[in-house]
Design brief:
The structure is a homodimer. Helix content of chain A is 32%, strand content 25%. Chain A is an alpha+beta fold. In chain A, strand 14 (174-180) and strand 15 (186-195) form a beta hairpin. In chain A, helix 16 (611-620) packs antiparallel against helix 17 (624-635). Chain A is globular and about 90 Å long. The two termini of chain A are 23 Å apart. Chain A binds chain B through residues 367, 390, 392-393, 395, 397-398, 445-453, 457, 460-461, 471, 511, 514-515, 552, 560-562, 566-567, and chain B through 367, 390, 392-393, 395, 397-398, 445-453, 457, 460-461, 471, 511, 514-515, 552, 560-562, 566-567. Strand 22 of chain A pairs antiparallel with strand 22 (449-451) of chain B.
Chain lengths: 722, 722
């Protein structure tokens, strides 16, 4: 069995950025990168906030990093002792991913002896505004120790600085009150320290930091414990965030570290009761999978009603903290099956941003709702027309993600439909969902074109999931998803409950039915291969390796008008296969297999959204062994080194929630074979060889089931919610 | 008045390529670059052939350069005396552009004294297979002269070599018989020399050259004359081209140089009688304009029925020797008005290549006739999908000239319509023209799309005349030209004479009428500006200079997906203005002026097709002074240095027939104000200030008119054809 702990011993400064993601802790309100407390912005420290954005100058709008309440470092015998500058004698970092507890322990050999600093910290899953850190210091000599600590408001930003005003106060309760540039949001942090040994407490001065220190001389090998509590509120939370933060910091300090930790662990335990997946026979898979789920838990917006999940979670400002189709297509299933109330929030975010989607559609001359490719608050599309920088000319390249990746709206409708059919909860329809669905269908209807001489409806000049081929016609996935949108919209319009909502109901039903009938759906060719888009089969047929060998600069973009992949059959990620994963009923197994074999070897898997779709379809085709490495790739996206960190010259590092969600889908829907054909829960397991037993819970139509699989037989038991 | 001679004194090797174009002689069958006879392929010598193409390996198919029958050089006192290696004491080159006679005269100072070589040459306008060169040698010392001469088959090629077999024979009559790689065409040249002074004649050996020599000792300052005659035939001309060449060379030598020259000059004089334009008060304009017409005469395919004019004439292999829309839109008017029988040939070429155009359409999923962007024999489209090389990566760039520049077919219909209405000769309709027109209309009909939710017909994803903006929707020019195609096709279909030709006549009339009514035509916005395409007005509004200043490499391509101009309002060439030049009746004068002012300052004039259209529309707007420098630019495209010789890394140098034709249009249709409104010849002059008088002839509906303009009054007299 696994111990739910990731331990990295020894120190390597090359890993700082990667470990920042790997050792992240979070509670949906904030994500704190797995950096050491003595680090500053140079080491990409971030207390990344959900749903609060800022834009400065010509830079991209991005989420705000809050002042860091975990900040602190040692001075021994007047010498600053910090990583990475002061090399350590011993060092380890440990992430307890069952409970989101980050521990670091470092011993430095100094002139007079060894000193050890161990600190343990978490951001509370019980009260999302709060973080606590317990620091233990011990030395094998009489060290003259000064521990400096507080709140660091000199935060890391990609397109910052975002704080126009930073007020720091280190008298008594330490506070930072910062004001964002664009919208004047207050971001306030208060910190309370508790020290129960004799020491000198002093106010300190550092620019844009609220800092104090405790000074003491150590007894030999005695542990000196410093407990700190910070609270973080913004003006989106309440009217006076500074006061709220101060009050919370004081209250939590009174409650004490152990009590907070207990509550925090209970909150996590509650989450795991419904989501933990036990795999017997393959600890590595069990670890990677549950570690993936840990990340999903860290970023679930349980505290809010109008938030979704960003493509890089709460690991920083990459991808602009924006919500992509990742949420609907890759992440949602996990929450639907383990915590439908979170799934509903994710969907509500889209319903609440319908106006933004309608505005975007209008701006491009469409009707209905064209959802943002990179959605921020109110559905604002943070995506720019120039998303990639040419490595050769250093010029921005015109990209078309924003204006031509029209499949985004269909993903939202697909997700709503799935939510309703798997939870049985159609309340979202009345809460704006029905309108959202119809507006999405109106969008596709307005985008449909036909040749004057032909009656087939088409979607031209689009980008499908595979972004390396831009401005293509009749992307199979997009057209199929649009067709599905028409179907669901018709169902909504025909539902008597929403009769009153649509004045032009009859007309819309007529239009959408016509569109549903006539929209062109790519069909398998004589070899059984479904063309990804019109003309795909005429492209140069080369291997992924051959395409890679044509790179002149390793950072150059494979796509765009002239990329190494653009005019070849090599694709970035699952595209036709994503279609088949969503609609396995469309073709028979032979066609599925044929397409899997055809496309898999032509796929770079250059997106973390790729492997899981291939793994899912492989499972459907009874190709468990082919699926297994792809599952592992998905499940270890944040665990293994070597993730893709660059697109052109743009840094895209961070955690990969979609990959984590994809790993869940493969484990539960693929290997365990959970499906809902004919409106009921079926479990048709196809476990990998090494998985002797597998057990987990899922929620279906408001009933909690325990699924136990052994010898590829499934035992499904209805259980009382625990 | 002008002397019809261009004389360049002094020698500069930097000008070799440019002068090759500037001093070209030609007779429609072949063009001989204005290079010296001692030059070889290093100096871009070419005897460029009309209508015979070859492809080797992966290179572009291009026209064949024939073995050079003008080859010859001096050896004096055993020393090779040649330009550019042996620097000259005195040197001039003269082109007589009234008669296409090229003269070079060079004096070298050698150890023992000065020797002068003068040679005069022409390719006969009377017998297009023949060239003659008369070489005069004199020295002011007793020079030991050897003159080596013959046929150089080691020709300059861009994508060659094109001859698989080269048989040379220097015994008696010199011959070269070469066989092309792809289609095994024979290209045969024979040469006969006549020397009427005592000398030693010897066979010589040079690889891939048929060479001989005459040796003699010079008397002081006596002229030694060597006359040579070559004849050139290919297997496209007759069954046994070698025999034909041999026979012709011998026959011409018997006729003698002076007789041949006389016949040649008479043939030219015949051409000038109907085409010469006399301008009093501005010799520079008169020279540039008639020099332009000279170039058009040099490349008119009078000898053939199935040839048209290549975009770089017969100046070499650039632009693949292919026929572009240049012929129909820029060159045709000159021939219609001066030599309608040539105009008819140009049109017949398109009719004869209808099958190729139908095949191309089919290949792209269209109906009807989609003419080649770069048309070679049988309408084969020589245009590649990768026409530009990226200067940064050296990779070929995917361009869309071939597949998306769909306005080409409309130009052919426009030209046919113009030919018929200006000549009154509708015989072309019966000779395949009617079918051609209808097939072009069918092509556009099949390309029309509409939004399902809208009834307006559109042409999307095209390239208009301005190639810097690719893959755009509803290019104003293209849509307008397509609409015109529908109109003309309807007229043809409604013409009772062709009733039998079209089985689906009624149906086609219905479709084309519907298309004519519904095709979207861009309209002036509130400022009176007609958008070049959908979304043009939203592009970055910067100056041409600003765009130029963004270049990193002076040779980089301004267009394509990421070019410096691509996402700005800066355009390569007249686009909306070309529309207005073709359809001045579409908008009132104010709109014309407004668009001229708006677009002219945003135009790079990076194509030789640009200035003349702006000049034409300026004349229509009574802006003669604005038109004048643009006329000069067009008329001097081959006369002035500094032409655009590069597109990315591709050499595009050569002569500019479209510019020459454009200069004619501006002079005759713009300044002289010749038009055919209401079906009759009108002359409404707006001469530039400096043009005191202007006179010329034009043919309209088979009647020859003399037009004399002075004081901006026109006198039009019907004259007997002379």
């Amino acid at each position: 069995m696994i111990d739910w702990k990731l331990k990295d011993i020894s120190f390597n400064s090359d890993n700082i950025a990667w470990h920042g993601n790997k050792h992240l802790v979070g509670n949906g309100y904030m994500g704190v990168r797995g950096t050491l407390e003595e680090y500053t912005k140079e080491q990409l420290v971030a207390v990344n906030l959900a749903g609060i954005y800022d834009k400065v100058g010509d830079g991209w709008r991005e989420p705000v990093n809050a002042p860091n309440g975990f900040y602190g470092y040692l001075i021994v015998d007047d010498e600053v002792v910090k990583l990475p500058e002061s090399s350590a004698e011993e060092h380890y970092v440990e992430l307890d991913y069952r409970y989101g507890i980050f521990t670091r322990c470092t011993t430095w050999r100094l002139m007079r002896g060894n000193i050890t600093l161990k600190s343990t910290r978490f951001v509370s899953m019980d009260d999302v505004h709060v973080g606590a850190i317990k620091t233990e210091i011990s030395a094998d000599f009489h060290a003259d120790v000064k521990y400096v600590f507080g709140i660091d408001a000199d935060v890391w930003d990609i397109n910052g600085p975002h704080f126009d005003i930073i007020k720091v106060n280190s008298n008594g309760l330490m506070t930072v009150d910062a004001v964002t540039h664009e919208k004047n949001h207050n971001v306030s942090v208060a910190q309370k320290v508790t020290v129960e040994f004799p020491c000198e407490v002093k106010r300190e001065e550092e620019i844009n930091k609220a800092v104090a220190s405790v000074s003491f001389i150590t007894d030999l090998n005695k542990k000196y414990v410093i407990e700190r509590y910070f609270a973080l509120y913004t003006s989106l939370d309440c009217e006076n965030p500074l006061e709220a933060a101060k009050e919370a910091a004081v209250t939590k300090a009174i409650e004490g570290y152990d009590t907070l930790l207990e509550k925090h662990k209970n909150a996590w335990e509650n989450l795991w009761r419904r989501s933990e997946i036990i795999i017997e026979g393959d600890d590595k898979s069990m670890e990677a999978l549950n570690y993936s789920l840990y990340h999903l838990h860290c970023i679930a917006p349980r505290h809010a009603d109008n938030l979704s999940i960003a493509a890089r979670g709460l690991s920083g400002q990459t991808y602009k903290g924006a919500v992509f189709w990742d949420t609907e297509m890759f992440i949602l299933d996990f929450f639907i099956m383990t915590e439908p109330e979170v799934a509903k929030k994710l969907i509500k975010y889209r319903i609440d941003t319908l106006e933004g989607a309608k505005e975007k559609a209008k701006g491009y001359g469409y009707d209905g709702a064209f959802y943002a490719w990179e959605s921020q608050e109110n559905g604002f599309d943070a995506c720019s027309d120039y998303n990639v920088t040419d490595v050769f000319t250093k010029r921005p390249m015109r990209t078309y993600f924003k204006d031509k990746q029209i499949h985004i709206s269909s993903a939202i409708v697909y997700a709503m439909d799935k939510y309703i059919s798997l939870t049985g909860d159609d309340s979202i329809l009345k809460e704006g969902g029905a309108e959202t669905i119809v507006e999405c269908a109106k969008f596709y209807y307005s985008a449909l074109i036909k040749k004057v001489c032909d009656d087939r409806y088409e979607l031209r000049d689009v980008i499908g999931p595979d972004e390396y081929h831009e401005r293509i016609d009749n992307n199979g996935y997009t057209n199929r998803m649009a067709k599905n949108t028409f179907r669901i919209a018709i169902e909504v319009l025909e539902n008597e409950e929403y009769l009153g909502a649509f004045a032009d109901r009859e007309e819309l039903i007529g239009k959408f039915s016509d569109a549903f009938d006539k929209i062109f759906i790519q069909q398998p060719d004589s070899e059984g291969v479904i063309p990804q888009f019109d003309g795909y089969k005429e492209l140069e047929d080369v291997t992924v390796d051959e395409v890679r060998s044509r790179l002149i600069d390793p950072k150059e973009y494979w796509g765009g008008a002239y990329g190494v992949a653009s005019h070849t059959k090599v694709i970035k990620q699952a595209d036709v296969i994503t279609w088949l994963a969503m609609y396995p009923q469309d073709f028979d197994l032979e066609v599925m297999k044929q397409n899997w074999n055809y496309y898999e070897k032509r796929t770079e898997h250059g997106s973390s959204l790729s492997a899981c779709m291939y793994a899912l379809v492989a499972c459907m085709c009874n190709m468990t062994e082919e699926a297994f490495p792809l599952f592992t790739k998905s499940a270890t996206a944040d665990l293994a080194p070597g993730g893709k960190e660059w697109a052109g010259l743009v840094y895209i590092g961070g955690t990969h929630p979609a990959s984590a969600g994809g790993a869940y889908m493969v484990a539960v829907e693929g290997f365990a074979g959970v499906n809902f054909k004919n409106g009921k829960l079926n479990v048709e397991p196809k476990l990998p060889e090494s998985w002797k037993k597998m057990s987990f819970h899922i929620t279906y139509k408001n009933v909690l089931y325990r699924v136990e699989i052994s010898d590829n037989e499934a035992l499904v038991t209805e259980v009382d919610d625990m």
